[in-house]
Amino acid sequence: MLNKINGLHHVTSLASGARSNNAFFTNTLGLRRVKKTVNFDAPDVYHLYYGDETGTPGTVMTYFPFPNAGRGRKGVGEVATTAFSVPKGTLDAWQNRLAEHGVTHLTRGSRFGESVLAFDGPDGDGFALVEVDGDARAPWTGGGVSEDMAIRGFYSASMRLAENGASAELLNFMGYEEAGRDGNVTRFAIANGNGADLVDIETYAGANYAAQGAGSVHHLAFSVENRARQLEVREALVDTGYQVTPVIDRDYFWAIYFRMPGGVLFEVATNEPGFDRDEDTAHLGEDLKLPSQHVHLRDQLERYLEPLEA
User: Fold this and answer.
1) What is the pTM of this model?
2) Taking Cα atoms as reference points, which of 74, 61, 81, 57 lies closest to residue 201?
3) Which regions of 57-192 does DSSP assign to beta strands (E)?
4) By the 8 A CB rule, do 229 and 179 touch?
5) What are the tens digits of pLDDT across the range 201-239?
6) Which of 82, 162, 194, 270 has an alpha carbon 20 to 30 Å from 187's alpha carbon atom?
7) pLDDT, tens digit, for every residue of 25-46?
């Protein structure tokens, strides 16, 4: 069993519009845009990152907004819900805030004895806020949401799968232990993590498979401290039979990718070097930052890419 992974690092999804995506995360949810860059493989598409003040691993939601992309089809083999941690007793205030911002499918409920507010993102993305007592992570408060109710970071990611046997074995190998069951949901937790410690598996035998599009999660990323730990994880996964990519430099972290048994694309990302490697903390996410292979396209891209602020 691995002991190098310390929770979620980031969640990356697809969107149909950059401006609406930016407005939802910075204005409605009150997160900070910590990086404005482009898709390494399709530089005419943004890669936007939202999180806490510095983009701490375990807080960062990232998006590829493909203009006018069609919506994904929900099903098994995908991340169904990304849940954020909020302070105890704040769901009423959050429900009012989200309703005032036109957020749809607001649903109150309970899972594993916790109070949950589920809702849709701009492209039908599945999100939830979970009341957590004692989450010590510092929130970003520059987005118009007060400190007493602001998002602390990820709480969990929930995958919708046809079965959970092989996927549960993988999570166990990655250092997660089963922490409980609630109906068709099995919860896995990692000990001494970064606060984004939980992964849930929802089992739907015989359901149709998902098709990616706007509103779909592209991949789920797990955190390791540094490149040495990442190489240990890669070697262990390869030895177990997984097809794992070489290490890829993503400017703000190094990444490896592999497909888990249930169909979800997993990434293992380093906490280094961080989002302040090319911008000081006070101005994160303000300027368009381009990977070296696309710097020569700056003039063209700045004319083409949709302005994020209205």
Assistant:
1) 0.97
2) 81
3) 60-65, 78-87, 107-111, 114-120, 126-132, 153-161, 176-182, 185-190
4) no
5) 999 999 999 999 999 999 999 999 999 999 999 999 999
6) 270
7) 999 999 999 999 999 999 999 9
